Amino acid sequence: MSEENFKLSRRRFLQAGAVGTMLSAGYSASAIAQSDTPHLSDYQPEYFTAAEWDFIVAATDRLIPADGEGPGALDAHVPIFIDRQLVGSFGQAADWYMEGPHDPNAPAALGYQSPLTPAEAYRAGIAELNTWCKENHGAVFAELEKETKDAVLTSLEKGDIELADTKGANLFDLLLQNTKEGYFADPMYGGNHEMAAWNHIGFPGARASFREWVGIEKPYPLGPVDISGKRG
Amino acid sequence: MARKEKKRDVVIVGLGWTGSILGMELCNEGLDVLALERGGDRDTVPDFQYPAIADELKYGVRYGFMQKPRNSTVTVRRSESETALPYRHLGSFLPGDGVGGAGMHWNGHTFRPMAEEFQLKSYVEQNFGKDLISDEMAIQDWGISYQELEPYFDRFEKVAGIAGQAGNLKGEIREGGNPFEAPRSNDYPMPPLPQTVDSNKFADAARKMGYHPYPRPSGVASKAYTNPYGMQLGPCNFCGFCERFGCYQYSKSSPQTCILDALKRKENFEYRTNAEVLKIELAADGKTAKGVTYMDANGEEVYQPADMVILAAYQLHNVHLMLLSGIGQAYNPATGDGVIGKNYAYQTNGGTALFFKDIDFNPFVGNGSNGHVIDDFAINRIDFGAEGFIGGSYISSGTFNGQPIRSMRLPGGTPKWGAGWKSAIKEWYGHSMAIGSHGSNMSYHTNHLDLDPTYKDKYGRPLMRMTFNWKSNDIRMTQFMKSKIEPLAESMNPDIMQSSFKKEGAMYDVRPYQTTHNVGGAIMGSDPKSSALNKFLQTWDVHNVFVMGANAFPQNIQYNPTGTVGALAYWAVEAIRKDYLPNPRPLV
């Protein structure tokens, strides 16, 4: 089967699902997930300052853009997820060994060696990156053109922009990892709004019961559920 | 001044698989047994129950059931010349935390090593010559044979409820099992589970190439089962939340599902959680232990006297406690003297990913022990002399989970972010599989454990320092596996194929998860000059201290360690019951 035909067959299948012919498990339109979380534009960040929030919104929007099929990071409310993670145990490095001495020049293969918690590394890194953007492009990151934003992120990823203030923490790696987490984690953490990222790839979320599908080589017919019991 | 508790017959440090086994068997002997577990209590309900357990972020990514480095970690360096730095957050390996230990969050792969692996040094010398063992290598025989251990493998498989297919039943080769395994006295207590799409395709391709696929021996139940302790398992539903998770279905073998509820009913058993043992206290002559000192849940130091101490913590912690307590002489790599900390080893793994545009694998349909395995390139199938390395691997394929944060396999060259990434995850999620090699790792004089000179834990004790790097023998072994896996993968006609095997010069990297199969450091053997424990896992120097776990492995086997850890625990406790208790003394 060619790639084109494959996609066509998937689309036909999904259309069939939408009118209910494949879904005999008691689905109704009213059971589709409704959001409890505020819309992104109404959300009041708990950790980020206004300037930091502008950066997070702008950067995650480039890491997973809205264009093309499937939700972008903003559709999925990824910034809300990251903000909540940074006020929680992850952001505070609650589980990590943080005793010194710290060697910011340690080989990368020896792992995280910064004295900063992830929340502190975001704060220091965003400020330094915005300063860099002003010096090199005349405006903070959030105010740059799409192409410039992508170029800045690429330079950051490659290490061409060095952020000394993070003391060895890698802002790009943290941001990309947390963005993907917020895209795919259960919606109770604030991202993956309406399970859109699970729907995009065909992951059934917290269904967690598949005995009758073992060894069956055809698309699984049911959409996702989340831990709260909502259907996506 | 530490509070002093009432003396017990036995104190067990750690309540995972081996602590539970020793607890049960010694309680059955009528002894008064206390287990001290430094983590919290955990049980199927409420800790593993549905739907809260189906949370990839909390358990799969943030390591909800794992040891917290803030409470306990190691430092790592790749050579004597490097400064070891703390393993500040988890990556390469994931020791467990709390009741059940790593035995509750594992995948359940339950193998027996090949008979040759227990006499590896002798096997190499006799078949390929002494010269093949390089000067840097520290491999040893275990001081025990497969034949001696066989009844105890059988016992552990029955308690844990392992599902599988015998390949060699008392010398008779059986279709569908592993024909290269050592003889078994009994078949597995449960038949194999059904297999996922990738596993079946791999098995078909392997058979076409003349190999011998068999279902992976599985600590995941295929049917309703009651074990010798009266504990009941139910069949797995392939929920896809296995490794790093507790099982909500009572299907995965664990101390919780196989031992603990029966053990907790015994009046002569007690366990305390959030009770971290700081030191084993020795008598003035250093020849026996008097008990242990631990920190209780309220932060109060407690002296717990006991007639016997069983170290049943994770491999790293058993070695750490021996170093901190002065049991046995610490190993010095410069002189070769000492035994505690020597022969630390890991696992040499690699793999090839295969992408198929037109196949729906449904990767969320999985269990931790799913898969077919071939042993056609296992340790007893390779001419080490001709190939120029010592070791082997099993090769397998099977889906454990399709959780999208940590199991998003994409073709090489796919953008890591941006529109290209977003379209690729839709295009490729559920359209790939992998064939992996899981290989031995030899021991070397320079790969070892000792106490770190700089970094301390929250009690002010030195962290343990791991000095470890990949060595060329094991790189050659894994490259050999690449040369066998790639033609097999090609025969399946994937649209895209990509391999990841360590190359010459590879340096150990603590960041990506590799495996929680840390072994050695307090090894068993037949000579107190070259081993920490005798063949009954009794410390050579302090006869009322026995040490369970993979720290006993003189080098790493090509298989997952738990089957061997369980068998060794049953073997050791039998010696304690029948030989040691009537006359406490050094058994060798």
Q: How would you sum up this structure, described in words?
A:
The complex is a heterodimer of chains A (232) and B (588). With 232 residues, chain A is mainly α. Chain A is 40% helix and 0% strand. The longest helix of chain A has 20 residues. Chain A is globular and about 55 Å long. The two termini of chain A are 29 Å apart. Chain B has a single domain, classed as 3-Layer(bba) Sandwich (FAD/NAD(P)-binding domain). In chain B, the strands form five sheets. In chain B, strands 1, 2, 3, 11, 12, 13, 14 and 22 form an eight-stranded mixed beta sheet that branches. Chain B is built from 14 helices and 22 strands. Chain B has 588 residues and is α/β, with parallel strands linked by helices. Helix content of chain B is 24%, strand content 18%. In chain B, 60% of the residues are buried. Chains A and B meet through helix 5, helix 6 and helix 7 of A and helix 3, strand 5, helix 12 and strand 19 of B.
Count of structural domains of chain B: 1
Can you tell me the CATH class of chain B? Alpha Beta
The SS-based structural class of chain A is: mainly alpha
- Poorly predicted residue ranges of chain A: 1-34
Give the CA-CA distance, first to last residue of chain B: 37 Å
Q: How many H/I helical runs of chain B?
A: 14
Question: Number of DSSP strands of chain B?
Answer: 22
Instruction: Name the overall outline of chain B.
Output: globular
| Helix share, percent of chain B | 10-25%
Question: What is the helix/strand order of chain A?
Answer: HHHHHHH
Mean pLDDT figure of chain A: 88
Distance between the termini of chain A: 29 Å
Query: Per CATH, what is the topology of chain B?
Result: FAD/NAD(P)-binding domain
Mean pLDDT of chain B: 98
The computed structural class of chain B is alpha/beta
For the report, how would you describe the main beta sheet of chain B?
8 strands, mixed
Tell me which protein chains meet in the greatest interface and how many residues each side has: A-B, 66 and 72 residues
* Number of helical elements of chain A: 7
